[in-house]
Design a protein that fits this description.
Length: about 210
């Protein structure tokens, strides 16, 4: 198996092969893997409801199971996602804040994909997951990105390769289930969510 590289145009092309619901599902699994970072940041900064973002994403999943959201609800929840992470100069800075912001943005992209159906919105959720782990590796290993070979060192790190591999696996599997009847599709989406939740625990770990 070759090395995975992030390719947004290729992701959009693959997403274009999917119906809207499965484009949203792809954004959701990317967001799901980021959620623990938001919860950790919320606890460390004393947020009133550390599970608020998780609840919003859970609502998107139920929408995919045909408990349909209205356009107004989608827009309100997208706005709520972006309001969850404060500005850089607001409150205490902690090292997980950047990843919490990635999580909130990824959920917002899932909602925007749900509203517009645009593949690009789902691809942006995937970019947030990729950039989060990329940033983590750079900072954890104190990599000087200006030095020769730094980009390849980050790209080849097992954590980065793991997430890029998961994204490609998810796209392939979503194409595979696209033509399932509604009842089987619902079961498959539930399994996608379960797997993403399990993988979230190891997102920043080996």
């Amino acid at each position: 198996m070759g090395m995975y590289r992030y390719g947004e145009e290729q992701n959009v092309a693959q997403l274009d092969r999917l119906p809207r619901k499965l484009r949203v599902a792809f954004a959701c699994v990317c967001a799901e893997r980021l959620l623990p970072s938001f919860v950790e940041w919320a606890h460390r900064t004393g947020r009133d409801n550390p599970n608020e973002l998780s609840a919003i994403l859970a609502r998107v999943w139920t929408d995919l199971q045909d408990d349909v959201m209205t356009t107004e609800e989608i827009r309100l929840k997208a706005d709520a996602c972006m309001a969850l992470v404060p500005e850089e100069d607001e409150g205490q800075w902690v090292d997980v804040r950047a990843y919490a912001e990635d999580a909130a943005a990824a959920v917002a992209y899932a909602l925007r994909c749900r509203e517009s159906g645009k593949s690009q919105e789902a691809a942006w959720a995937a970019r947030r997951a990729y950039e989060a782990v990329d940033h983590y590796v750079i900072n954890r290993l104190n990599i000087d990105t200006n030095r020769s070979g730094a980009e390849e060192r980050v790209l080849t790190h097992p954590l980065v390769q793991a997430e890029l591999g998961r994204q490609q696996r998810d796209l392939v599997d979503l194409v595979r289930i696209a033509d399932l009847p509604a009842s089987n599709l619902a079961l498959s989406l539930a399994e996608f969510r379960r797997l993403a939740k399990a993988e979230a625990a190891d997102f920043f770990q080996l």
